[in-house]
Write the C-alpha cells for this entry.
Amino acid sequence: MPVIVASDLDRTLIYSAAALALTMPDARAPRLLCVEVHESRPLSYMTETAARLLAELGDEAVFVPTTTRTRQQYQRINLPGPAPTYAICANGGHLLVDGVSDPDWHAQVTARLADQCAPLAEVQEHLLRAADPVWVRKHRVADDLFAYLVVERELLHEDWVKELAVWAENRGWTVSLQGRKIYAVPKPLTKSAAMREVARRTGADLTLAAGDSLLDTDLLLAADQGWRPGHGELADTGFTAPSIRVLADRGVLAGERILREMLGAVRDA
C-alpha cells in the first residue's frame, strides 16, 4: 500500500533567505539549492542534502506538496525529484492532479464554504477598514477563497492580530501570522480534507505530514505521524500531540531533518 507524505512548503521544506537561520560559522554553512525564482530573482532554497532526500522520498512514497500558496505561486517552485501527481494548494481549496485543479473537488470546497462561514467579501472589507496603512504593504485575495495582508512586522501591533482572530472566530474564519503575512482563512478550508481525499484515491493506509504554522494544525493531527520544526507559530505556542515529532532544529536545517526522518518512516512502513 502506498504511503502519503503531505508536507507544507514554506518554512517547512523550503526557505527564503531571511528564514534560513544559518547560525553556524560561514565556512560550515550547508550548500544550498535554489528551488524558486520570482521576477528573475532567487526566492526559496533548501539544502542540497534535503534536495537529495526529497528526490528519494518522491521515488518511494506519494509526495504531496501541501501549501497555502495559490496555484500560480506554487507553480513557481521547482522541487527536486519526480513531479508530484497530487498537490494541495490554497490551503486545500485546490487539489491539483498532474498540475491541473480537480473541478469536482473545488466545487465541493466552495459549496462547503458558502454553507458554513461568512463570505469572503465581508472579511476582505473588514481587513481593508481595520488595518493600519502605516504597516500594511499589500492587500491580497487568494484564488477567491481567502484573504491576506503583507505587513511590516516591526510596526505591527500583536494585539491587532489577536483582535482580528476573535472577530474572525465569530464568523467561521481563522487567522494566522506567518512571517510578513497575516492570513484570514475560512475554517472549513483545510489541508487535512484534501489530504484525506488523496488517501482515498490512492488507497494509502499510512499518512505522514509536516508543517510549522497554525494552518498546518489540522494536517498534522489528521496524519498518522507528523513533524514540526523548532520555529514558526506552532513552536511559539508549544503545540504538540502524541503523534507529532517535535524537532529542536530551526531554519533550513529543520527541513533537512524532517525529510530524513520522513524517509526513514517510509522505509520502515
About this structure: The mean pLDDT is 96. The longest helix spans residues 252-268. The longest strand covers residues 32-38.
